[in-house]
Structures are given as C-alpha cells and as structure tokens.
Hints:
The structure is a single chain. By secondary structure, this protein is of the alpha/beta class. The chain has one domain (23-269): Alpha/Beta hydrolase fold, catalytic domain (Rossmann fold). The protein contains eight helices and twelve strands. The protein has helices at 2-20, 24-36, 92-97, 116-123, 126-139, 152-166, 185-194, 265-269, and strands spanning 57-64, 69-76, 81-86, 103-105, 113-115, 144-150, 172-177, 198-203, 223-226, 232-234, 257-258, 261-262. The strands form three sheets. It has an eight-stranded mixed β-sheet with strand order 1-2-3-6-7-8-9-10, sandwiched between helices. The chain has a two-stranded antiparallel sheet with strand order 4-5. A two-stranded antiparallel ribbon has the order 11-12. Helix 4 packs across helix 6 (152-166). The longest helix is centred in the first third of the chain and has 19 residues, at 2-20. It is globular, with a radius of gyration of 18 Å.
Amino acid sequence: MQSIILITLVLCLCASAVAASFDWATANSSVWLAAGAYCETNTYMTRTYKGYSSGFVPYYVIDDKTYDVQGYIGTMPSQSAIYVIFRGSTSIQDWVNNLDAVLTDYPRCSGCEVHKGFYKAQQGVIGAVTGYVQTLKSKYPSYTVIVTGHSLGAAMATLTAIDLKASGMTPLRMFNFGSPRVGNDEFAAWASTDLTDRNRITHYKDMVPHVPMHERFTHISGEWYEDEDTSVKGCTGYEDPTCSYQWSITNIDDHMNYLTLYMGCDAVSNA
C-alpha cells in the first residue's frame, strides 16, 4: 500500500513538473503572431502588432503565389528572438475536405515519408526563408530562432524548423498550433529526435490534428493539450490517448481558438 501511495505521489509530482514547464510567454507571442499571419500580406510590414505580439519588428514577407504560402519574418527584441511565422489556410473547411493525403519520400532520414502537398509548398519557399533568417542571424547572432504557424502553417513550421536547424540556425524552437499530421511513423520518430525543442499545441476537439488518417500518418511528439477550460497539460508519445487523440467526434470551431485567442486577423488587430 505504501508503495502504491509513493508511486502515485511521484507520478503527480512529475505531472506537475511537466505542466509547469509550458512556456506561456513564448506560446502567447507565437499564437498572436500566427493569428496575425491571417492579415493581408501587404499589411505585414506596416500593421501595428498588439497584445502578446507587441514589440515585434517585421523584416521580410513570405508570399509565394505558386503554392499559396504566406507568412513573415522578424524579430522580438524583448525575447532576443527571430520569428518565422506561416499563415494557415484561409478556407479551413475546403482545405480539410480536399486534403491530399499522398506520401512522398523525405530525404533527411531513412524510410521517412511526408505529406506531398505540405512538402512541395514548404520547399517552394525554404530557400528564401533560410536566406532571410541567415541575414537576421548575422545581425543578431545571439537570438533564438522560433518557427510558428497555425493549421497548414503549423505543417510548414514543422518542416521549416528541421531545415533551418540543418542549415545551422541554432538555438531553434518550434511552436505550432492545430497541426495536421505531417509524415509517417519513421518521420515522426526521427523528427521528434531532431527537433529537441518542439511544442505541438492542440486545442480540445480540434479536427485538424486528426488528419490525415492515423493509418498512414503519425504526429511528432511534443504535444501540449489545451482542454475545454483552456488548461494546458503535457502529453507523452506521438498519439497520447489522453490528449487530442482521445476524441472521435471533432469540430472546426475548436480549430479556430487557441490560448483564448481566435485565429484570425480581426482578433489581433482590434485588441
């Protein structure tokens, strides 16, 4: 009996330590910047960054018409950080309904495959993005690179974080919100080792983390699950059955709300 009590106490203390380690400051800045990516691209350089994105200084715009990839890159001097932010799809329902779940070989690891559409889109901009980040890193060598995005932008953030790290951009952190699954089992295992500071945040019954189907795709680890009451807990493994994976009935509304913020331009512009 005493052993059971001791084990329970240790588990509770470990769970509390995990919960306490969630980086609210960076997560809040990241989610506000990710929501700001839904603003028109021609406003990225001139708009006023408010709330938890206050103090952000934009330097570069990501705007690829071929693959419809948008976002921006800049610095947050108060955090000594360079942020790379990707926009999610502007038509969430259409994107979910028409998801092309085709796997393609991923060259960075043996046996790895990733979503072909995500990979093609990300590869279409990675050259320019890497160049922009290298320019800022040469100006601010001590700054941490933080890559973030929501929805489709979260998938872009995952692949981009890996490439930026491979190009020598360290230290590097990733915070994404409502990400779909990006690759197969082998990719999930490899990326979870390669990206040592990864924060994959999911919200309650958000449907997008459930696609593409788990039979062929697997999430990377590093999930932080935000419950209905906005409390956040650390999850284990790749598909923790006590976190977002517990839900079989999901909805779009939960996809558009993260850390009490609605993921759209109006929310961060009218704050």
